[in-house]
């Protein structure tokens, strides 16, 4: 990693001072509004003087004028692209199901060079549209957007991305030797050099990815066998069977994505050092030991990246790619301004379907996020400012929409804020509308309205949770000024519980709270703590306002139910904190939550339709749960 390209080619604001990071963390723990010095309570009071839906309309109005591009088309066929023949194949379409799909015939012409040349020519000319016509196209590398370029798929255009990992470690700007030529990416909230996403942009302005309709398809082929073995991108997830948190027919199917032992994101990778001090010599032995935790689990790729971030190793020295098993995103744009996603379908994606990071003015309209493989989040705006997501449909193997803002120390981009989600439909997923768990930089000023959580696959692959927050003592962050209204859930959500295991000695008994599945409204400030060694950032959740949520019952073998529990609020669990700060940071309850004019149907857990822990001021107004209408304020 002595390549001068790595030393000099990176201008990512990665040299954020520890002073700023400490301030951001303190702001989260202490309830400060970043950039203003206001406390959370003062901010809430100020926000309360405004009509929140006027704030939402102001954000919507910002996108009334569409992004403009030069009126010139650059057809990829003019740069040498040719359509390909496709042949039938049997491939995974979820973690537990196979189906008959199509894949490019062996020897198909690679359109990567033609697409790259068309984008370069369009950019050089001052912008325009790079057009992918109808037909089947094989692309063995990433589509990398440049400023003022709109990559547009005509109706019937089907881009099959190569399912060979090496093709996403060829064209990045950072020569990392045997790891490949890698791209600066962010993986589950932490920065690193890794495989490029299949559609990628960094630091660009005025860009768009559009399609004529949902027959315009970007296909990640994540369930198709790799060229040289009977495994696939999803094999890198590293589970040997379904789990109870969200897979189809959880725990009951004998068919599931297979993986190679030792070649997954959760396998000990011998390429990773045996001591964190080898890559972070500035750490004391005590600091390194604290970050590593007990045993060698920290050497798993997914944990190793977290450890590098906690150890303050610069992003350009967090090198993954070949020999490692962190799956690439389908679409990831980083530090871009004026971005449009519109009118196409993505399917069979290796990892998250869309992840704009540190982007400004992001408009998402009429997309179909259609991938139900592991971790196939539909749309994850991360540390983005001014986002409008509308008129779109999500069918996912993880959260449909998840608002994020970095993990651990990687919070240099600040909070996600000023976001509106409206007129969308959600089917399968862990959470229909989710905040976190990757939220260390905070989330504020989010408005969601007029959504249908259709849950059309409720018999076989039910939506786990309708409205969900996830954080813990490692992720920290804040969520505030959240307004949600007019939500219809015509087929309920999952009616059986899924529990997260808690830490030994926790104040919460293990597998006792259904935070993972079964709650219509779930605020979980103790999310999955066993996977985090550093637990020093208490989350702060306040000023959450939800109204007019209508949830119907469905017929189950045990009766007509809408959910397992109607409301689950697990506030911060003080016993999870393992820092040495004296005094320890103040751990505050979830505060100022109002739920108004809702019918949450009939929970299967009739004896305990609500679960509350470390909550202050949950106000229910005209909330029907089963046969009871609640008008009261609760604390626990």
Automatic annotation (TrEMBL):
GO biological process: carbohydrate metabolic process
Spans through the membrane: none
UniProt keyword Manganese present: no
Key words, A-Z: Glycosidase, Hydrolase
One Pfam assignment: Glyco_hydro_28
Molecular function GO labels: polygalacturonase activity
PROSITE patterns in alphabetical order: TAT
Family of this protein: Belongs to the glycosyl hydrolase 28 family.
PANTHER family: PECTATE LYASE SUPERFAMILY PROTEIN DOMAIN-CONTAINING PROTEIN (PTHR31339:SF86), PECTIN LYASE-RELATED (PTHR31339)
The protein's name: Polygalacturonase
Gene source species: Undibacterium pigrum
Organism placement in taxonomy: Bacteria, Pseudomonadati, Pseudomonadota, Betaproteobacteria, Burkholderiales
């Amino acid at each position: 990693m002595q390549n001068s390209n790595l030393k000099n080619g990176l201008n990512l604001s990665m040299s954020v001072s520890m002073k700023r990071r400490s301030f951001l963390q303190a702001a989260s723990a202490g309830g400060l509004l970043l950039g203003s010095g206001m406390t959370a309570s003062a901010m809430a009071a100020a926000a309360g003087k405004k009509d929140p839906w006027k704030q939402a309309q102001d954000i919507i109005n910002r996108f009334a004028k569409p992004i403009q591009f030069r009126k010139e088309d650059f057809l990829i066929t003019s740069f040498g692209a040719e359509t390909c023949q496709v042949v039938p194949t049997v491939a995974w379409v979820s973690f537990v199901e196979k189906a008959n799909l199509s894949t490019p015939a062996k020897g198909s012409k690679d359109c990567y060079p033609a697409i790259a040349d068309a984008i370069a020519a369009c950019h050089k000319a001052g912008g325009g549209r790079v057009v992918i016509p109808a037909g089947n196209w094989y692309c063995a590398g990433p589509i990398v957007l440049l400023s003022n370029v709109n990559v547009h798929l005509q109706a019937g255009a089907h881009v099959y991305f190569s399912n060979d990992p090496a093709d996403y470690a060829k064209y990045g700007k950072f020569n990392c030797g045997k790891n490949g030529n890698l791209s600066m990416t962010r993986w589950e909230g932490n920065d690193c050099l890794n495989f490029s996403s299949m559609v990628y942009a960094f630091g660009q302005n005025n860009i768009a990815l559009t399609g004529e309709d949902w027959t315009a398809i970007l296909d990640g082929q994540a369930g198709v066998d790799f060229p040289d073995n009977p495994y696939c991108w999803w094999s890198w997830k590293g589970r040997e069977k379904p789990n109870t948190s969200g897979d189809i027919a959880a725990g009951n199917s004998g068919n599931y994505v297979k993986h190679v032992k030792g070649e997954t994101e959760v396998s000990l990778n011998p390429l990773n050092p045996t001591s964190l001090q080898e890559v972070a010599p500035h750490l004391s032995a005590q600091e390194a030991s604290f970050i590593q935790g007990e045993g060698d689990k920290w050497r798993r790729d997914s944990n190793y990246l977290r450890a590098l971030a906690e150890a303050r190793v610069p992003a350009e020295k967090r090198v993954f790619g070949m020999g490692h098993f962190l799956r690439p995103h389908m679409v990831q744009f980083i530090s871009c301004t004026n971005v449009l996603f519109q009118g196409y379908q993505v399917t069979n994606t290796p990892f998250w379907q869309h992840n704009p990071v540190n982007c400004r003015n992001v408009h998402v309209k009429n997309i179909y996020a259609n991938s139900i493989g592991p971790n196939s989040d539909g749309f994850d705006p991360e540390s983005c400012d001014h986002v409008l997501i509308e008129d779109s449909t999500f069918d996912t193997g993880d959260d449909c929409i998840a608002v994020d803002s970095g993990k651990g120390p990687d919070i240099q981009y600040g909070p996600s804020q000023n976001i509106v989600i409206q007129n969308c439909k959600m089917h399968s997923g862990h959470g229909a509308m989710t905040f976190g768990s990757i939220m260390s930089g905070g989330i504020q000023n989010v408005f969601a309205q007029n959504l249908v959580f259709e849950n059309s696959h409720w018999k076989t692959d039910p939506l786990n949770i309708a409205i969900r927050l996830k954080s813990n003592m490692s992720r920290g962050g804040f969520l505030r000024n959240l307004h949600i209204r007019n939500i219809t859930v015509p087929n309920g959500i999952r009616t059986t519980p899924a529990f997260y295991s808690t830490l030994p000695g926790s104040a919460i008994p293990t597998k006792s709270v259904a935070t993972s599945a079964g709650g219509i409204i779930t605020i979980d400030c103790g999310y999955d703590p066993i996977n985090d060694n550093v637990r020093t950032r208490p989350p702060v959740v306040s000023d959450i306002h939800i109204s007019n949520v209508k949830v119907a019952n469905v017929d189950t073998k045990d009766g007509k139910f809408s959910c397992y529990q109607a409301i689950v609020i697990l506030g911060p669990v003080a016993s999870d904190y393992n820092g040495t700060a004296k005094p320890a940071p103040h751990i505050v309850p979830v505060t100022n939550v109002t739920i108004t004019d809702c019918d949450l149907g009939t929970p299967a857990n009739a004896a305990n339709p609500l679960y509350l822990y470390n909550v202050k001021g949950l106000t229910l107004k005209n909330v029907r749960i089963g046969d009871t209408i609640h008008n009261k304020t609760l604390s626990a």
